[in-house]
Design a protein that fits this description.
By secondary structure, the chain is mainly alpha-helical. It has ten helices and no strands. Helix 2 crosses helix 4.
Length: 143
Protein backbone atom coordinates (compact mmCIF):
# COMPACT_ATOMS: atom_id res chain seq x y z
CA UNK A 1 0.00 0.00 0.00
CA UNK A 2 2.85 2.40 0.80
CA UNK A 3 4.40 1.74 -2.59
CA UNK A 4 1.08 2.45 -4.34
CA UNK A 5 0.66 5.70 -2.39
CA UNK A 6 4.21 6.75 -3.22
CA UNK A 7 3.68 6.05 -6.93
CA UNK A 8 0.44 8.03 -6.87
CA UNK A 9 2.12 10.97 -5.14
CA UNK A 10 5.04 10.97 -7.57
CA UNK A 11 2.70 10.87 -10.56
CA UNK A 12 0.72 13.76 -9.15
CA UNK A 13 3.84 15.80 -8.42
CA UNK A 14 5.31 15.30 -11.87
CA UNK A 15 2.06 15.64 -13.81
CA UNK A 16 2.67 18.18 -16.56
CA UNK A 17 0.63 21.04 -15.12
CA UNK A 18 3.27 23.75 -15.36
CA UNK A 19 2.78 26.83 -13.21
CA UNK A 20 -0.73 25.90 -12.08
CA UNK A 21 0.27 26.37 -8.46
CA UNK A 22 2.77 29.21 -8.75
CA UNK A 23 2.05 32.68 -7.33
CA UNK A 24 1.01 34.02 -10.75
CA UNK A 25 -0.82 30.81 -11.79
CA UNK A 26 0.23 31.56 -15.36
CA UNK A 27 -0.14 27.91 -16.42
CA UNK A 28 -3.71 27.80 -15.17
CA UNK A 29 -4.54 31.08 -16.91
CA UNK A 30 -2.95 29.82 -20.12
CA UNK A 31 -4.90 26.56 -20.07
CA UNK A 32 -8.15 28.46 -19.50
CA UNK A 33 -7.39 30.64 -22.52
CA UNK A 34 -6.61 27.53 -24.54
CA UNK A 35 -9.97 26.07 -23.47
CA UNK A 36 -11.67 29.29 -24.57
CA UNK A 37 -10.01 28.98 -27.97
CA UNK A 38 -11.01 25.32 -28.27
CA UNK A 39 -14.61 26.19 -27.39
CA UNK A 40 -14.59 28.88 -30.11
CA UNK A 41 -13.50 26.19 -32.58
CA UNK A 42 -15.66 23.29 -31.37
CA UNK A 43 -18.71 24.92 -29.74
CA UNK A 44 -18.88 28.43 -31.24
CA UNK A 45 -22.39 29.20 -29.98
CA UNK A 46 -21.26 28.80 -26.37
CA UNK A 47 -18.15 30.90 -26.99
CA UNK A 48 -20.32 33.63 -28.51
CA UNK A 49 -22.67 33.54 -25.50
CA UNK A 50 -19.72 33.88 -23.13
CA UNK A 51 -18.32 36.83 -25.09
CA UNK A 52 -21.70 38.56 -25.42
CA UNK A 53 -22.18 38.51 -21.64
CA UNK A 54 -18.50 39.19 -20.81
CA UNK A 55 -18.10 35.96 -18.85
CA UNK A 56 -14.45 35.05 -18.48
CA UNK A 57 -13.50 31.38 -18.59
CA UNK A 58 -11.65 31.88 -15.30
CA UNK A 59 -14.96 32.36 -13.53
CA UNK A 60 -16.55 29.13 -14.69
CA UNK A 61 -13.75 26.59 -15.11
CA UNK A 62 -10.87 27.56 -12.80
CA UNK A 63 -12.01 25.08 -10.11
CA UNK A 64 -12.26 22.34 -12.73
CA UNK A 65 -8.65 22.78 -13.73
CA UNK A 66 -6.96 23.68 -10.45
CA UNK A 67 -8.66 20.88 -8.48
CA UNK A 68 -8.57 18.38 -11.36
CA UNK A 69 -12.35 17.96 -10.98
CA UNK A 70 -12.20 16.94 -7.29
CA UNK A 71 -15.43 18.01 -5.56
CA UNK A 72 -16.77 18.94 -9.01
CA UNK A 73 -17.69 15.52 -10.40
CA UNK A 74 -18.57 12.25 -8.65
CA UNK A 75 -15.60 10.51 -7.02
CA UNK A 76 -15.70 7.48 -9.35
CA UNK A 77 -15.66 9.76 -12.38
CA UNK A 78 -12.81 11.83 -10.98
CA UNK A 79 -10.76 8.69 -10.35
CA UNK A 80 -11.40 7.53 -13.93
CA UNK A 81 -10.37 10.97 -15.23
CA UNK A 82 -7.19 10.75 -13.14
CA UNK A 83 -6.43 7.31 -14.58
CA UNK A 84 -6.60 8.81 -18.05
CA UNK A 85 -4.71 11.92 -16.94
CA UNK A 86 -1.77 9.88 -15.64
CA UNK A 87 -1.73 7.75 -18.76
CA UNK A 88 -2.40 10.35 -21.49
CA UNK A 89 -1.37 13.64 -19.89
CA UNK A 90 -2.98 17.01 -19.34
CA UNK A 91 -4.92 16.97 -22.63
CA UNK A 92 -7.50 14.97 -20.68
CA UNK A 93 -8.54 18.09 -18.74
CA UNK A 94 -9.43 19.77 -22.03
CA UNK A 95 -11.26 16.69 -23.29
CA UNK A 96 -13.35 16.49 -20.09
CA UNK A 97 -14.15 20.21 -20.10
CA UNK A 98 -15.09 20.20 -23.80
CA UNK A 99 -17.24 17.11 -23.35
CA UNK A 100 -19.17 18.75 -20.52
CA UNK A 101 -19.65 21.96 -22.50
CA UNK A 102 -20.59 20.31 -25.81
CA UNK A 103 -22.92 17.73 -24.26
CA UNK A 104 -24.76 20.46 -22.33
CA UNK A 105 -24.61 23.11 -25.06
CA UNK A 106 -28.41 23.43 -25.37
CA UNK A 107 -28.78 23.96 -21.64
CA UNK A 108 -25.96 26.52 -21.50
CA UNK A 109 -27.48 28.45 -24.41
CA UNK A 110 -30.72 28.86 -22.44
CA UNK A 111 -28.89 31.28 -20.13
CA UNK A 112 -29.59 34.91 -20.88
CA UNK A 113 -27.40 36.76 -18.39
CA UNK A 114 -24.13 36.56 -16.48
CA UNK A 115 -25.45 34.85 -13.29
CA UNK A 116 -27.49 32.35 -15.33
CA UNK A 117 -24.42 31.34 -17.34
CA UNK A 118 -22.42 30.77 -14.14
CA UNK A 119 -25.27 28.66 -12.75
CA UNK A 120 -25.47 26.57 -15.93
CA UNK A 121 -21.77 25.77 -15.63
CA UNK A 122 -22.39 24.52 -12.09
CA UNK A 123 -25.32 22.40 -13.26
CA UNK A 124 -23.48 20.69 -16.11
CA UNK A 125 -21.20 18.92 -13.65
CA UNK A 126 -24.17 16.98 -12.26
CA UNK A 127 -26.54 14.48 -13.77
CA UNK A 128 -26.53 11.14 -15.52
CA UNK A 129 -23.68 11.90 -17.94
CA UNK A 130 -21.09 12.12 -15.17
CA UNK A 131 -22.51 9.36 -12.98
CA UNK A 132 -21.24 6.58 -15.27
CA UNK A 133 -17.49 7.12 -15.13
CA UNK A 134 -16.61 4.68 -17.90
CA UNK A 135 -19.41 5.87 -20.17
CA UNK A 136 -18.41 9.49 -19.63
CA UNK A 137 -14.82 8.85 -20.69
CA UNK A 138 -16.04 7.02 -23.81
CA UNK A 139 -18.20 9.91 -25.02
CA UNK A 140 -16.82 11.09 -28.36
CA UNK A 141 -18.46 14.35 -29.35
CA UNK A 142 -15.64 15.68 -31.53
CA UNK A 143 -14.81 13.36 -34.41
Amino acid sequence: LQRICLCFLLNLLFLPLPDFYSPTMIGLKTDQEVLGHLVRLKVPAVAELMERHNVMWTLVVSRWFICLFIDILPVETVLRIWDCLFYEGSKITFRVALTLIKYHQASILEANNFPAICEKFKQITRGPLVQDCHGFMKVRLFQ
